[in-house]
Design a protein that fits this description.
single chain; 332 residues; alpha/beta; TIM Barrel; 8-stranded parallel beta barrel; 14 helices; 11% strand; globular; amino-acid biosynthesis; 4-hydroxy-tetrahydrodipicolinate synthase; diaminopimelate biosynthesis
Length: 332
């Protein structure tokens, strides 16, 4: 990892997206009503600031952004900026299938104080590469924020190829990419074609440490929701023996947080850790019981305390669970 990509984050006067552990933040919801729990959201954000998380990515897939109203999106982003503003950069997910809608959401994110945007490739319609260039450049021209491209062909059905990324990297406002292809060989190709200043993020927690060790800048991480301090420590020095040990400790979390569609398992894990209620919105649903033990075991292996049964019962019945007591190890 290039040291400057990580250190630039806390030192910048006007915060910009940076390397390290950038949490793909969940949106806490009250079980039963599934109303957004802004108190729990604030607590989670304060915890991430305390733990040294390098960046917060709100309103993405993990944040169930597609199920939020415009008013809820605004309030989630306001809360993130209020807690993290000037300390940790806040990136807003503003990608959608329609270019004009993506522009509108990006401009709204700028109005609310976001430090950058994360823009996924248009899903389902499978644009050709030239159309992707036109789409992203149009957004970058219209939205006065740094943009991180998001390539996740397994969800969208379209792969943003390295040559296309290199063309887009010429735009002053397109500053990086989240690569969720599962192919760490792309790190060297993207670095060569896009230059040293272009931020490369992995979207695959299980491959994230290796991605950064190979020359990437960071991870936009689901695991960081549960083990923020460990993720940041590991990615700051990915080749150290201590970082390799952290990665091994988190291995079960990296894997079990995807036993069902994201964010189902990670929201259940945070509920089990006593950090929020169990709410999740349709068309998703709470983690199926046959996977509960897998999550509990992964949490314990990562040195994350599981909340007592009474607290779990409260959260499952629509009352936000209280923050968990300090966890052991580096994951606090």
């Amino acid at each position: 990892m290039r040291v400057g990509a990580l250190l630039a984050c806390p030192l910048a006067a006007a915060l910009a997206p940076c390397g390290g552990s950038n949490v793909a933040l969940v949106t806490p919801m009250v079980a039963g009503s599934n109303a957004v729990d802004y108190g729990a959201l604030r607590s989670l954000l304060e915890w991430h600031v305390e733990c040294g998380t390098a960046g917060v990515v709100a309103l993405g897939t993990t944040g169930e952004a597609s199920t939020l109203s415009g008013e809820e999106r605004d309030e989630v982003l306001r809360t993130a900026v209020d807690v993290c503003g000037g300390v940790v950069p806040v990136v807003a997910g503003t990608g959608t299938i329609d270019t004009e809608r993506a522009i509108a959401m990006g401009r709204r994110a700028a109005e609310l104080g976001a430090d950058g945007t994360l823009v996924v490739t248009p899903y389902y319609v499978k644009p050709p590469q030239a159309a992707l260039v036109a789409h992203f450049n149009a957004i970058a021209d219209a939205v006065d924020l740094p943009m991180i491209l998001y390539n996740v062909p397994g969800r969208t059905g379209v792969d943003l190829l390295p040559a296309t990324v290199a063309e887009l990297a010429r735009h002053d406002r397109i500053v990086g990419i989240k690569e969720a292809t599962g192919d760490n060989a792309r790190v060297a190709v993207l670095r060569e074609q896009c230059g040293d200043d272009f931020l490369l993020y992995s979207g695959e927690d299980a491959m994230g440490r290796e991605f950064v060790a190979l020359g990437g800048d960071g991870v936009i991480s689901v695991t960081a929701n549960v083990a923020p301090r460990d993720m940041q420590t590991m990615l700051a020095n990915p080749n150290k023996s201590s970082s390799i040990k952290i990665d091994a400790k988190l291995r079960a979390l990296h894997e079990k947080l995807f036993v069902q569609a994201n964010p189902i398992p990670v929201k259940w894990a945070l509920h089990r850790a006593g950090r929020m209620g169990a709410g999740i919105r349709s068309p998703l649903a709470a983690l199926e019981p046959q996977f509960h033990e897998d999550i509990d075991d992964a949490l314990r292996l990562a040195d994350v305390d599981v909340a007592p049964a009474a607290e779990q019962d409260a959260g499952a019945n629509g009352v936000a669970a209280p923050p968990a007591r300090a966890v052991s190890g580096a994951s606090a």
